[in-house]
Amino acid sequence: MQVRVKLSSGPLIGYWQFCQEIARAVCPIDRNPKGIDCVWAKRYPSGVSSPYAGTDVPLPLDVADREALAKVLQKLPPLKYPMSEKDIASFIEAYVKLPSRPMWMPVLVTEETVLGAKIKRNQIVDRHLAAIREERKAGRLVPVDINHVPLEAVQIGAHLSRKDAIAYLERHGLAYDDEETAKSLEQGSLSGEAGHPALDVDPLALSEGASVVGRQRFSAAKKAEAVKRSNELQAAGEKNFRKRVAEEYGTTERSIYDWVREDEAMKETKPTLAIFLHGRKKK
Fold first, then answer.
1. Looking at residue 230, which CATH number applies to its domain?
2. Which of 106, 139, 211, 252 has the most neighbouring CB atoms within 10 Å?
3. pLDDT tens, position by position, 98-147
4. How far is the first Cα of the chain from the last one, in angstroms, to the nearest whole number?
């Protein structure tokens, strides 16, 4: 199965979130596996015909292993994680007694297995953080802040443009699922007009030559309207205010969240008229 990185919507992607999504795709963690997914490896006991016999080394399951295991699982106690030591012992005992089972022993998912996967995922995040910093030095990507201002380093608050993020994935041989593309295709399909832009894409942006993917899908005025609506519902105590606004404006909850954050950042950095006038009076 090909690894696919999920890209969030919006023109900018936080560099930390981006690395996290890569790690989730490369090292998925099922915290509540059932059935065959509870078996993550195999071991060859002493006395069987294998160079790994008696070494206690866990080996990954291949397709043939999974097929052989699937045939006998229905005859064994059900598997699910977490399992008590008693349930694990009962499963292994029943497995050993099966006459037509594989010669290897199944290695079940444990708390240590999940912890090891988390550690591996964190290591993947660290490696991609380092790789992104190296690519910035090489000039292959440009980190920016929430206002699209270029930054000298990949630091807290840094983002990647959608174009740079996709190019990075392609350079490293990683496929991706793009929420922007998926939503555009869905909207285009619903409109029944193949090859036409999605209905919720800002026509002004398209007329200015902007593409659907990786560009603003709504005008600044429409975004401001959605931000205002979100803030009003939140102040009124609406429980799922972000979801409601997303449905009203035909976008995602993530987009609403990003727009609110962008609006807050703009307010923090934009000088007020009062400050400007105050400075004029002093002269």
1. 1.10.10
2. 106
3. 998 999 999 999 999 999 999 999 999 999 999 999 999 999 999 999 99
4. 68
Distance, in Å, from the CA atom of 200 to the CA atom of 217, rounded to the nearest integer, reads 7
Q: Do 175 and 41 lie in a common domain?
A: no
The domain tally of the chain equals 3
Question: Is the domain of 171 the same as that of 118?
Answer: yes
Give the residue from 153, 135, 134 showing the smallest Cα distance to 143: 153
Kindly write down the DSSP assignment for every residue of 162-226, as one continuous string.
HHHHHHHHHHTT-EEEEHHHHHHHHHHHHHT-TTSPPTTS-HHHHHTT--STTS-SS-HHHHHHH
Residues 123 and 259 in one domain: no
The domain containing residue 59 runs over which residues? 35-93
Please tell me the least confidently modeled range out of 42-46, 101-105, 185-189: 185-189
Predicted confidence (pLDDT) at residue 216 exceeds the cutoff of 70 = no
